[in-house]
Structures are given as structure tokens and as C-alpha cells.
Amino acid sequence: MDAIVKWLSATIPRVKTPLSLAALMLVILYALISQVLKMQVFSGIDGQSTYRLLSRVLDIMLYLGMTCVILAGACYIVVAMLQRRDSARRRSAVELVDMFVDHPTERAKPSPPTGRTGTPR
Asked: How many domains does the chain fold into?
């Protein structure tokens, strides 16, 4: 159990995307299921009751895992769509402004260099 906690504490800071969060949740659910099955509390219960209990617990964990995967996928798609829309909006908002006072074929002549007094040399 300590190894799982150490691994989780090292892994959680590296989770950056919704899909990696979903994968982490599936790994956590798998570890939780394996820990539940290793427990010896089921030895005092008859087989049918143990089956119903474990079936119910695994069903709930399965639904939670599927919910995590679906929400992570939806988040990934929404973020990708918003980024694409924002980048398209930024590209279309750019306008080129003609800053030339003169005709575009005429270029402004550079002014002569000046000294400290402001008079031409």
C-alpha cells in the first residue's frame, strides 16, 4: 500500500491533460479493486452474498471510471474546439493599416543627420 501512495504522490504532479487524468483514475480504480479483493473480510460471508457485494462494488467503480473517461474526453474536445475558434478569431481580427502619408510608391527621404545644436552638418 505504501508503494502505491508513493507512486501516486510522484505521478499526480505530472498529470497535465484530461486524458492523462482519466488514465490515472483507471489505474487508481484498478488498484482499489485489487486491494478490495485481497481483503480477508469476505471469508465470513457466504458465496452468493459475496458475489452480490463485489458485483455491486465493481459496477459502481466501473460507472465512475466510465464517467471519468467520458468527462475527460469531452473536456479534451471542448478545449480543442475553443483553442481552434480563438486562434481563428485572432487571425481574422488582424487588420493591416497603411501608415504611409505619401503615395505608396514614394518613400519618405531620410532627414539629414544633425549635431548637438540641431543644425545640419
From this structure: 1
